[in-house]
UniProtKB/TrEMBL annotation:
Organism for this UniProt entry: Longibacter salinarum
Keywords, ordered alphabetically: Carbohydrate metabolism, Cytoplasm, Hydrolase, Magnesium, Metal-binding
Chain's gene name: fbp
Cofactor: Mg(2+)
Span of domain Fructose-1-6-bisphosphatase class I N-terminal: 11-204
Subunit text: Homotetramer.
Subcellular location: Cytoplasm
GO CC terms of this entry: cytosol
Reactions accelerated catalytically: beta-D-fructose 1,6-bisphosphate + H2O = beta-D-fructose 6-phosphate + phosphate
Name of the protein described by the UniProt record: Fructose-1,6-bisphosphatase class 1
Pathway: Carbohydrate biosynthesis
Length: 342
């Protein structure tokens, strides 16, 4: 017998967004349309990714991006799809993307209100694509502050602290494709049913376990970590008959969205600290750390750079990096205590 729910039991992402919108009587629907544009781009990226091996879009473009990293063809394609969807929708006046040096102003004269700023990593972990490992998209949405003009937004309008986000989410293109997002009222997850082309609510009110047994870090850099972090990693791996979570298990895909998603569901901590070659860490504050930090917090977890709450960091540039410790509250607190030498 089929276990597929019938129409009476399912809720599409679109329905869910509209229901949320109805809770705000003065809403214009612009924000709902923006989320719809993002989910449409995600479906297109998903489609192209599933065909990647067949239509010669694996591999690099031969270019490097603003971070000096080799740009994969799928990076460029995903960037393009999201920009096109947002431009067409008209609700977004400014895009900041990992794949573009400057924030990109959009023409908002025809469609939509153009009141929103979208920061995104169109395809995170893309070095994994050629080897069939899952990747993701991360996005963060801000309102254009009143003092800016949506027809000519100053690029600095994008530099707001994470606490000002009005929505944040990610899409994981894994064994299934899921979109998970928050608008500050908890976290909800939607699984793509490719047979009907809709994201369906599959994980309502997602919460993360308060503690966990998984730690995710590139241990290859162990010798360049600060002492407090090495002590924490050693502590995690010690056997303790009174602690069912130790020795902890290591899981590291090298695809932030996938590592984060697994830990969110199962309980765990993801760490990308400062290293010798990346003294500020590797991940980007504005479109990787901030959105995931808000999702973690909304699910009951925690996110810091070891000393400061991620969402309270003041951004100075679009592609700013930050060390990141994110996941189950107890684990992140313990990491902070080790880092701060308590
Ligand atoms: P990217 O945005 O260029 O794809 O880089 C980010 C990725 C993350 O997905 C992943 O967690 C990390 O880089 C892995 O880095 P490393 O290979 O140094 O462990
Ligand atoms: Mg990335």
């Amino acid at each position: 017998a089929s276990t597929r729910p019938d129409l009476g039991d399912i809720k599409t992402l679109e329905q869910f967004i509209l229901e949320q919108q109805d809770r705000f009587p003065h809403s214009t629907g612009a924000f709902s349309r923006l989320l719809r544009d993002i989910s449409l781009a995600a479906k297109i990226v998903n489609r192209d990714m599933r065909k990647a091996g067949l239509i010669d879009i694996y591999g690099s473009t031969g270019e490097t991006n603003v971070q000096g990293e080799v740009q994969q063809k799928m990076d460029a394609l995903a960037h393009r799809e999201f920009v096109l969807a947002l431009r067409r929708g008209g609700e977004c006046c400014l895009i900041g993307s990992e794949e573009h040096a400057e924030a990109i102003p959009l023409d908002t004269s025809s469609e939509g209100d153009g009141k929103y700023i979208v920061l995104l990593d169109p395809l995170d972990g893309s070095s994994n694509i050629d080897v069939c490992v899952s990747v993701g998209t991360i996005f963060s949405i801000y309102r254009l502050p009143d003092e800016y003009d949506e027809d000519e937004p100053d690029l600095d309008a994008a530099l707001q602290p994470g606490t000002e986000q009005i929505a944040a989410g990610y899409v994981v293109y894994g064994s299934s494709t899921m979109m998970v997002y928050t608008t500050g009222n908890g976290v909800n997850g939607f699984t793509l049913d490719t047979s009907i082309g809709e994201f369906l609510l599959s994980h309502p009110d997602l919460t993360t376990p308060k503690t966990g047994r998984i730690f995710s870090i590139n241990a290859g850099y162990y010798h360049s970590f600060e002492d407090g972090l090495c002590d924490y990693l050693d502590w995690l791996q010690e056997y303790d008959e009174n602690d069912p979570n130790r020795p902890a298990k290591t899981r590291y895909i090298g695809s932030f969205v996938s590592d984060f998603h697994r830990n969110l569901l199962k309980g765990g901590i993801y760490m990308y600290p400062a290293t010798q070659s990346s003294p500020e860490g590797k991940l980007r504050l504005m479109y990787e750390a901030n959105p995931m930090a808000w999702i973690a917090e909304q699910a009951g977890g925690r996110a810091t750079d070891g000393h400061t709450r991620i969402m309270e960091k003041s951004p100075t540039k679009l592609h700013q990096r930050t060390p990141l410790f994110i996941g189950s509250e107890d684990m992140v607190r313990r990491a902070e205590a080790f880092l701060q030498g308590d």
